[in-house]
Amino acid sequence: MVQANAQLPHPPLEGAKLVIGTIAVSLAVFMNVLDTSIANVSIPSISGDLGVASDQGTWVITSFAVANAISVPLTGWLTDRIGQVRLFMASIILFVISSWLCGLAPTLPFLLASRVLQGAVAGPMIPLSQTLLLASYPRAKAPMALSMWAMTTLIAPVAGPILGGWISDNISWPWIFYVNIPVGTVAAIATWAIFRNRDSVIRKAPIDGVGLALLITWVGALQIMLDKGKDLDWFASTTIVVLTLVAVIALAFFIVWELTAEHPVVDLSLFSKRNFTGGTVALSIGYGLYFGNLVLLPLWLQTDIGYTATDAGLVMAPVGVFAVLLSPLTGKILPRTDPRYIATLSFLVFALCFWMRSRYTTGVDTQSLMLPTLIQGIGMAGFFIPLVSITLSGLPGNRIPAASGLSNFVRIMCGGIGTSIFQTAWDHRTILHHAQLTEQANAYNPTFAQSVTQMGAAGMNPTQAYGMFNSMATQQAAQLGVNDLFFISAGIFIALIALIWITKPERAGGDAGAAAAAAH
């Protein structure tokens, strides 16, 4: 009898319970998403304090992203075994504990281990927050609930760099993790108070152990290969060759196994659907470009342009203005228009922003840095929800959770890969441009000879003059390197529009809420 009652849908929340429940879920989401970006501007501070290079410090970001990517597909299975409210509560509590461990970290390996734990327990939090929030509102008000939820996820990535920069400059970097403790504690208490009697049915479900092991193997090997490749001279290193082979072989076995397993951990047959494939690939590559640039821009500003962490974070802040203002509008017009139009406009805006950034110079002013970021908010408002609507279009309701998990997995994985690729590509382009610039440093170049003469007239000896030229060449090379990546990003966003238009979205009012729910 209890089992039968438990299977009935819970009635929507009302009054104060609805308000408190929405705030509790939003706080958990805010804390989770904040941690994907709060460390970005703090990498130099973390690296310096722990005595490691900045490129090693980026592991703080990628370790979280990879662990998060691996855990997302397991959300459905864990929910069946634990219950959605208990799992959500466990995720919040373990997230708080892992944040505390991150702040206490005395060494980089300890910090990375804590970030892996943090990323792993964060995986179920966002899908479950959507589930709990949608179940709390009447079906007719689902778009309103999702609009509020979407604004939370848009504000957090913007607040992350600002808060992280201010904390790094004025307090110390461990506090970028300690801030999660009060937020998570309040979220956990409020969640338990409101949702404890609204848990889902617990039932035993088999786990695809072989598939999970293969998933961890190929994802881990791929990410380590991407992160360590630039340090080990890529395929000149036996380690990189071995990691690449492990990733490729494990991925091949993973694909074959998952397509034939009775209870696959990841339902790869979804890729046979045109809408799912086109939408997922466009969303994931677009997110990888966005997230890679979100890491690259503050890092370049701090290491080569002389910005503080706080100032670098403030440069990123304007993206939230239009994103927050226009998100509710996107939710209103989406049911009445083709989502491909909104997604196309979003990608064109992203392309414009990256093209504007590709024209930066070493003397760029703050206004020129902030203008593309402000415009980018327009693209952000039309990025997630229309693309996820396309991705889940036409799928039966029972396949929506699996599709949402797989789409999120690919997106999060691309975010981690994007970070690694952009860091590596920037290093390579900087080295190339530096070599090209220093080729001009010879007595047969009248411009170089004149510059050395002017430096000599200013009191420098030849060694000092050459050192000054090398310093200027290094800064200019780094500038040209980021310009290359911005320009390439603009071109890829244009090319991705073709993927949007190979899809054929189907109208499915019943799935609209579920589709929008997977928007992050």
Overview of this protein structure:
- It is a single chain.
- The protein has 520 residues and is mostly helical.
- The chain folds into three domains: 1-207, MFS general substrate transporter like domains (Growth Hormone, Chain: A), CATH 1.20.1250; 208-264; 267-419 and 490-520, Growth Hormone, Chain: A (Up-down Bundle), CATH 1.20.1250.20.
- It is 76% helix and 0% strand.
- The protein is globular.
Would you summarize the structure shown here?
The protein has helices at residues 2-7, 15-34, 43-50, 54-57, 59-71, 75-82, 84-104, 108-122, 125-136, 142-170, 175-178, 180-195, 209-228, 238-260, 274-303, 309-316, 319-333, 339-357, 366-381, 384-391, 400-438, 446-457, 462-501, 509-517. The protein is 76% helix and 0% strand.
Give the SSE layout:
Elements (H helix, E strand, L loop, with lengths): L1 H6 L7 H20 L8 H8 L3 H4 L1 H13 L3 H8 L1 H21 L3 H15 L2 H12 L5 H29 L4 H4 L1 H16 L13 H20 L9 H23 L13 H30 L5 H8 L2 H15 L5 H19 L8 H16 L2 H8 L8 H39 L7 H12 L4 H40 L7 H9 L3
Helix pairs in contact: 2-9, 2-10, 2-12, 5-8, 5-13, 5-21, 6-7, 7-8, 7-9, 7-12, 10-16, 10-17, 13-14, 13-21, 15-16, 15-20, 15-21, 15-23, 17-19, 18-19, 18-20, 18-23, 20-24, 21-23, 22-23
